[in-house]
Every structure is written in structure tokens, then in C-alpha cells.
């Protein structure tokens, strides 16, 4: 793919109760946001194993977004608090291993925040566009 | 209480064996888990209940074939439990603490017997080496731990900054001691009474010797960390692990990686042939076996916070990759984020199973 018509690919892991529903609201509210995001629905941000984030990054996805309920609002009481620690650890490991940890975003977006979802995807698409393609896209020996 | 096991005829090992026999005979423990010399001359951990067989015990042998915290877990995890004395090295004691937190071991009926570590060789090196035990044990007094001429200690040992026992029920305090005279042991008063031991004067030079040794080893460790970080920055994990064959040896010998249903042993990574074609068409070429970098990065996420730096992973790697160096260097940074020191305190919860509501409040709110 030529770099000048580069379109970032973002994989999003969204929790069923908040962010996925927020994305739904963005749709039913007819809010516009870039089509660069591929959404995968999970029951909770706390069920995102680091390997789910790593696999797309190593295969060349330009960004991974993890969306969960705001702290205190988790449907399972504490899943998002655990996700927070897990993603902090993941980003630290990526950084320490020499990778760009800003390709991983964790955002709290509630079911009522369709606007925040659309804004987040817009911001992330632009940020990844600015970074350019994930170098992993061209690396075959991974 | 601190006591001294007297050594006769400069024979430290016999004195240590005698002390261990006492533990069994005085029924301080029902059995001992400790390194034993097999008839073939190799060293392996074994559970021993017959004191007579302790003539083959050798907790001072400079070899480490596995991190025995794993087997200490096997013999302690479920009730009914016997009272078992586990003779362990400092890195094994730290791994044991982590395994207790991971609910893979129990300290309820385990008596930990820690032995200061003077450095260990890899199994093939030990097999080839004619060990000069007297010279090896003599290094304890100064703390200047040097391998035998022409040989090296295990990679993990070379950068180990915690070769001294920090906490155990019974500690064989080798550092700072003249082991031709006696072996200083610290233990509870109750246990000493049971064994008929009385307190010895002075606490010797151990503190000073350990301090110097820790400083020296920390310098080596930090240099190794800098070196591997430079390599990681240039080549990434995929570069450092380019020769990885994904044999999973590092995971198998890792005392922390206990999961029986490890993702990487599951069919999740048995991809369909069409899937490989999909990937290869995207990138033009695709390294096989697949998912090697993913394996290491995932393992880092799953266990680096608990990495005790025993270096068994490096010892077990058939491709001679600096696994332990990478895991320790990255582990240290992520441990610092959570102010967590693996093996330090049994009461300290594992960072990824606990949380506070009012921490990292800014994360996720951007």
C-alpha cells in the first residue's frame, strides 16, 4: 500500500455494557466517525487478555483501542479496575521492549456517551494516521 | 537465634548433612525436600524421610537443574500435609513466595531452609567439571564469588543481586563465614531448643560481605540491562528472539509459569492453513513457527511482574537466547510501576489481582 493513501486500521475491544452500547448510540444518533475501526465486542474490558492486544499489533494493525465502563460503573464490579492495571502493565512492557505504546489506547466510554465514542475514534484515527503505518506491517520475521 | 554448626576435618558438607539429619531425628520435620546426589553423580531434588539416606544430600553443590520452588509447591499444596523442610536457594525461596500467592504452594506446613548461594553452573557444565568444593566454599567468606578457571556460572547467577537468603525459617548463613570452622545457622529459639542447639556469639561479617556482593552484582546486572535495552530498542523483541524455535522450554522451567491450561499449549494457535496464506499474502513472507514474538510478549505480560530472576529460562534455551536478561530487564521496569518486588513479602498482593479504586484516575479519561 502506498504511504500517501495510508488508512490506519484500528482494532477495538469494547465492553458489552458501556462502550459497545455507546458505539451503538453513536450509530443510532447518526454521528459520523471514521470507518477505520474494527469492533470486537467482549463482555468486559477486564476480559481483554494482553495477547488479544498484542496479536493484531504484531500482525500490523495500526492501533488497538480498549473501551470499558467508567471506574465505579463496571457491570461486574471490578473488571475495569483490573483492566486498568493490566493495560498499564502492557503499555509499560511494550515501551520497555522498544515498541510504541501509544498505539494502545484505553478509554472509558459509557453507554450514554455516543458522542465521546465518535470523538475517540476520530482522534485515534488521526493520531495513528500521523504516526504512519505500524512498522510491524512490513516485518515478516515476527 | 544464631548458632554455629561445628565443622570437623574441614568437611563442611558432612556437618551440613549432620544438621539436616538432626532435623529429621528430632522430628522438627517429617521429611526434607533437598538436592540429592544420584548414583549417577547428578544432582536432583528429592523428598527424603530416612535420615540414613542424607549421606547423599548435597545442598551445597554448585548446580541448578531446575527451580525447586515448583516441586516444593507439589508437596505442599494440598491437605493433608506432612511437615516438610524445603532446602532452597534464595531465588527458589522468592519463587516459592510468588507460587504461594498464585495458590500453587502453601507455607502452612512447610519449613523453609534457605542456603546462601555461592553461584551455580548449568547442568552440562557441572557434569564436565571436577568441582573443587573447598575452593568453592572458601569464596563464601569474602563474598568474591568466582567460578572455576575456564568456566562460568549460569547466566542468571552472573547478574543475580540477591544471592543471600532474606527470609526463611532456618537460614544457613554462608556469607562471611569461614566454612572450614563452622556453618552459622539462624533459626527460631523453639526450633533450636528442640535440636539442643545453643546460641553462638557475634553475627560475624555476613552483613558487610552481603552488602559488598550485592553492590558488585547490581553493577553487573545494570550493565546487562543497559546492553539488552539497547538491543531491544534497535531490534525489538522479534530481533532479539529471532532464533527462537518456540520450544516453550523457557516456559516449562519457569517457576512462575504454572498454568496447566496455558494459552500457548491450547489449540488457539493451531491456525488453519488458509489463515497462514492470508497472513503471507499480506506481508509477502511469514515466519514459522508463527507467533514466536507474541509468545514472548504474552509471557512477559503474564509473569514478568513475578519474575524472581532465577535465570532458568536462559539455562533451558536451546538457541542460547538471553531470555532471562530480557525478562528481568523488562520485568524490573514494570515491577517499578507497581512498586512490586517479587518474593519480598507474602502479604503483598500480586499487582494484577488487586486494585485500588482511586489510582491512575487520569487513565482512560483523555
End-to-end separation of chain B? 56 Å
| Integer count of domains of chain B | 2
- The assigned structural class of chain A equals alpha/beta
Give the structural class of chain B: alpha/beta
Total strands of chain A: 4
CATH superfamily of chain A: Lumazine/riboflavin synthase
Order of helices and strands of chain B: EHEEHEHEHHHEEHHHHHHH
Radius of gyration of chain B: 22 Å
CATH top level of chain A is Alpha Beta
Number of domains of chain A: 1
Please count the helical segments of chain B. 13
Biggest beta-sheet profile of chain B: 7 strands, mixed
Biggest interface, residues from each chain:
A-B, 41 and 48 residues
Strand arrangement across the biggest beta sheet of chain A:
2-1-3-4
How do the strands line up in the largest sheet of chain B?
1-7-6-5-4-2-3
How does the major sheet of chain A shape up? Answer: 4 strands, parallel
Written as H for each helix and E for each strand, in order along the chain, the element string of chain A is EHEHEHEH
Gross geometry of chain A = globular
How do the strands and helices of this protein lay out in sequence?
The complex is a heterodimer of chains A (142) and B (366).
Chain A: E1 10-15, H1 19-28, E2 37-42, H2 50-59, E3 63-68, H3 79-96, E4 104-108, H4 114-131
Parallel strand pairs in A: 1-2, 1-3, 3-4
Chain B: E1 2-6, H1 12-25, E2 31-37, E3 43-48, H2 69-76, E4 84-88, H3 90-101, E5 110-115, H4 123-128, H5 133-142, H6 155-158, E6 170-172, E7 182-186, H7 189-195, H8 206-240, H9 249-253, H10 273-283, H11 292-303, H12 312-316, H13 323-337
Parallel strand pairs in B: 2-4, 4-5, 5-6
Antiparallel strand pairs in B: 1-7, 2-3, 6-7
Helix pairs in contact in B: 2-3, 8-13
Amino acid at each position: 500500500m502506498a504511504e500517501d493513501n495510508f488508512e490506519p486500521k484500528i482494532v477495538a475491544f469494547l465492553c458489552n455494557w458501556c462502550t459497545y452500547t455507546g458505539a451503538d448510540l453513536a450509530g443510532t444518533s447518526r454521528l459520523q466517525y471514521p470507518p477505520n475501526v474494527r469492533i470486537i465486542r467482549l463482555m468486559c474490558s477486564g476480559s481483554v487478555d494482553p495477547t488479544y492486544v498484542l496479536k493484531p499489533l504484531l500482525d500490523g494493525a495500526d492501533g488497538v483501542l480498549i473501551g470499558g465502563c467508567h471506574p465505579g460503573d463496571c457491570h461486574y464490579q471490578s473488571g475495569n479496575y483490573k483492566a486498568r492495571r493490566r493495560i498499564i502493565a502492557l503499555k509499560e512492557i511494550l515501551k520497555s521492549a522498544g515498541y510504541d505504546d501509544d498505539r494502545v489506547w484505553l478509554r472509558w466510554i459509557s453507554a450514554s456517551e455516543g458522542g465521546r465514542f465518535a470523538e475517540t475514534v476520530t482522534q485515534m484515527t488521526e493520531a495513528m494516521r500521523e504516526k504512519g503505518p505500524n512498522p510491524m506491517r512490513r516485518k515478516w520475521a515476527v | 537465634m544464631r548458632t554455629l554448626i561445628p565443622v570437623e576435618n574441614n568437611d563442611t558438607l558432612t556437618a551440613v548433612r549432620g544438621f539436616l539429619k538432626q532435623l529429621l531425628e528430632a522430628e522438627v520435620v517429617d521429611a526434607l525436600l533437598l538436592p540429592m546426589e544420584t548414583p549417577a553423580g547428578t544432582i536432583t531434588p528429592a523428598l527424603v524421610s530416612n535420615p540414613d539416606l542424607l549421606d547423599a544430600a548435597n545442598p551445597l553443590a554448585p548446580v541448578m537443574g531446575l527451580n525447586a520452588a515448583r516441586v516444593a509447591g507439589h508437596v505442599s499444596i494440598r491437605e493433608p500435609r506432612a511437615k516438610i523442610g524445603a532446602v532452597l536457594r534464595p531465588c527458589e525461596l522468592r519463587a516459592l513466595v510468588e507460587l504461594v500467592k498464585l495458590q500453587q504452594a502453601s507455607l502452612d506446613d512447610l519449613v523453609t531452609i534457605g542456603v546462601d548461594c555461592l553461584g551455580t553452573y548449568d547442568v552440562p557444565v557441572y557434569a564436565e567439571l571436577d568441582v573443587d568444593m573447598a575452593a568453592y566454599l572458601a569464596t563464601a567468606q569474602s563474598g568474591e564469588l568466582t567460578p572455576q578457571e575456564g568456566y562460568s556460572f549460569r547466566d542468571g547467577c552472573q547478574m543475580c543481586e540477591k544471592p543471600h537468603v532474606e527470609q526463611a525459617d532456618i537460614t544457613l548463613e554462608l556469607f562471611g563465614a569461614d566454612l572450614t570452622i563452622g556453618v552459622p545457622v539462624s533459626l527460631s529459639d523453639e526450633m533450636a531448643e528442640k535440636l539442643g542447639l545453643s546460641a553462638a556469639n557475634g553475627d560475624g561479617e555476613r552483613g558487610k560481605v552481603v552488602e559488598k556482593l550485592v553492590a558488585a552484582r547490581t553493577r553487573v546486572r545494570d550493565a546487562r540491562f543497559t546492553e539488552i535495552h539497547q538491543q531491544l530498542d534497535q531490534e525489538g523483541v522479534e530481533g532479539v528472539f529471532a532464533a527462537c524455535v518456540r520450544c516453550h522450554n523457557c516456559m516449562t522451567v519457569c517457576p512462575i509459569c504454572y498454568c496447566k491450561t496455558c494459552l500457548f499449549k491450547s489449540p488457539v494457535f493451531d491456525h488453519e492453513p488458509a489463515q497462514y496464506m492470508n497472513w503471507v499474502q499480506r506481508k509477502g513472507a511469514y515466519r514459522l513457527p508463527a507467533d514466536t514474538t507474541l509468545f514472548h510478549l504474552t509471557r512477559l505480560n503474564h509473569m514478568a511482574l513475578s519474575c524472581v530472576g532465577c535465570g532458568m529460562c536462559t539455562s533451558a534455551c536451546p538457541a542460547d537466547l538471553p531470555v532471562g536478561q530480557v525478562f528481568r530487564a523488562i520485568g524490573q521496569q514494570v515491577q517499578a510501576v507497581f512498586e512490586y518486588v517479587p518474593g519480598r513479602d507474602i502479604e503483598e498482593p500480586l499487582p494484577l489481582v488487586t486494585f485500588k479504586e482511586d489510582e491512575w484516575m487520569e487513565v482512560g479519561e483523555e
